[in-house]
Amino acid sequence: MLKQTGKALLIGATAALAVTTAAPANAQTGTQAAAAKVSKHQEVRCVQQSGRTCAYSVSFFYWNKKGSDKRGLNYVQTARSPYKAGKARWLYKQPGGKAHVGQSWRKAHAIHGANAAEVDWGKAGATVGPKFRKGTLVCVQWKNVAKKACHTLK
């Protein structure tokens, strides 16, 4: 049997007490717990045209509260490379509905340090923006480009 002094037992008991009474290191505050109930999603689509690997790309950022059938679209971004001036817009079609324009034509701006043009709508990383039903088809269209880049909100 291992002999321990009273001092060693006291130190061990104090350490055990400190561990059990202290807040866990991974405990969440009220705002963090509320944020944990939100799922954030990002989807990227690439549109091919005339055999090119990617005429333009689109990123869709959206979020939902767990268990909800609503999806908040907080940010849509599209880029075209090589740089070519133009305009783009985004559209949506809810399940069983008809297509609507989300935002009208917006002029592209050059991306500093890159040979690309970009158009964006909304606020990245936020949980704001228009809310749609699950299954809504969201598309981006560049003016004078036949193909649209689309994603269904899951």
Q: Explain this structure to me?
A:
The strands form 2 sheets. Strands 1, 2, 3, 6, 7 and 8 form a 6-stranded antiparallel sheet that branches. Strands 5-4-9-10 form a 4-stranded antiparallel sheet, with no helix packed on it. The chain is mainly beta and 154 residues long. The protein is built from 2 helices and 10 strands. Helix content is 15%, strand content 45%. The chain has helices spanning 6-21, 30-36, and strands spanning 38-47, 56-65, 70-80, 87-93, 99-107, 109-110, 117-122, 131-133, 137-142, 148-152. Mean pLDDT is 79; it is low at 1-36. Strand 4 (87-93) and strand 5 form a beta hairpin. The protein is globular.
Please outline what is shown here.
This protein is mainly β and 154 residues long. The protein has two helices and ten strands; from the N terminus they run ααββββββββββ.
Task: Write out key terms for the chains shown.
154 residues, mainly beta, six-stranded antiparallel beta sheet, four-stranded antiparallel beta sheet, 2 helices, globular, disordered N terminus
